[in-house]
Amino acid sequence: MDMYKKGDCLTVTIEDLDTDGQGIGKADGYTLFVKDALVGDVVKVKIMKAKKNYAFARLEEVITPSSYRIEPKCEHHRRCGGCQLQCLSYEAQLAFKEKKVRNNLMRIGGFPEEKISEVMQPIIGMEVPFYYRNKAQYPIGTDKKTGKPVAGFYAQRTHDIIANTDCALGVSENKIILEKILAWMEECRVSAYDEITHNGLVRHVLIRKGFVSGELMVCLVVNGRELPQIGKLIESLKEVPGMKSISLSVNRENTNVIMGTTIRTLWGNDTIEDTLGGIKFRISPLSFYQVNPVQTEKLYAKAVEFAGLTGKETVWDLYCGIGTISLFMAKNAGKVYGVEIIPEAIEDAKGNAERNGFTNTEFFVGKAEEVLPKFYERVSREGDTKGALFGEQIEENVSGSDRSLRDAKQATDMLHPDVIVVDPPRKGCDVQCLDTMLKMQPKRIVYVSCDSATLARDLKILCEGGYELKKAVCVDMFGQTGHVETVVLLSQQKPDDVIEVEIELDELDLTSAESKATYAEIKDYVLKEHGLKVSNLYISQVKRKCGIEVGENYNLPKSEDSRQPQCPEEKEKAIKDALEHFGMV
Ligand code: SAH
Fold it and tell me: What is the model's pTM?
């Protein structure tokens, strides 16, 4: 079918939105994708790119507006790549996002619609869906006509700068700060960077604000080591109420990466501070920190609620960044272990934990899909509880058996934690990571996701592996854009959820079972058949698990709160095999 070609104009009714918020219309079986057109709009469009069954078309005119269409706040919204949904009423934006997540859970996750309706809570929207971003990165360029420096945004899919110092998603201080910088550039003849010639100095301005603290940070990204007359700029910027940190980042590379790798503080502190859920975080120009702090608190509160903490639990927080979710969990859990790929973020996480007085957190640098399987292998297979917990150097640091006993108990708790939280980037979790999570059998999994397609893909794997979808809720962190965050709770389906078996106690002949094989015989068998060394303690633990009475001396703790190492899974299997071999179970 070759009905339409580039340049054709036609009128079409928009029936749906795709996952990016583009309008979808149908004309003679042809699917048209129309940016900036909304469900319910009747629009005149021009075909820009035609394929066999679909085409991309440009919105030329809204003939009959959709009932969801509203007056956009920002005149630049169609050219700027930032806000895809500004013409859609906020209520309709929320409905669009929820529907997108539901569809992905159904189509990709394979969950029945009724199940999703049963578990899904209403989307948590913003009170004011504007001015919510605590971070802005403005590119700086030169106006072609006037030759003056400008700050603004890249036009969608290009690097042309649209001059605009007052983005409606950001804070009001952005405009004040940018105008001061532009005025100084003009006065002191400081050039703006030019991407094509790689000449000029000022590339970007990063502004961050602590919403609770009111503290402000400005970082100028510069194609050079120094800036002329920087003193004048500092004098001007430090007048802005809340200004706490002014810094310079040198980026002389010919790249799209915004920030340089080093930061030099020109005035004030190296970091600003902000508070989330009563916990203080220090933020440097390079730190990852959620951009919508008001909604982040709601998101994390949901994650904590879903985790079902009572103060004793062992929790893993995978993809932990600077430890924000970890610390929210640590307020209500026994112990929290964070894993994150970026070493600097882990340094921040440790610092944040320490400054807030947390003593129940530990952080590990590495890929979740490497750290977790490695840890699991070492503890479950090799029974190496000490090394796997604290790194190789621990062998020298451990003195006294008490410490190693406590560590071993901790290792077992880590191996089978109460909760695993994951908050991966858009590509979701690596399958290695999911596999190990399944082996670890946490009671609950809390999945925080910024991409519901990969979320649905991963939930499918986890649910096929023995978990059940219990709760889900969307949180809107990015109003006016097509993005949405989702938190999901999965629970372990215990075997007794499926089958209930009642065993009468007198069916078990305890005394005869106990007499069948000695500890030494069991040890020999396990060593010969499985190549594993097991202790009397482990044998007694497994016997007890199997309902076989054991002698007093082996597994009674010395005092109420003294803890013992628990038999690793691999060894437990081997011991059970021996018990079966000797006809004891
Ligand atoms: N939970 C944090 C950060 C979430 S963003 C918060 O809410 O602030 C996702 C994080 O995953 C980023 O910090 C990123 O650096 C990290 N990351 C990306 N790939 C990873 C991997 N394979 N293993 C561990 N962490 C990873």
Answer: 0.80
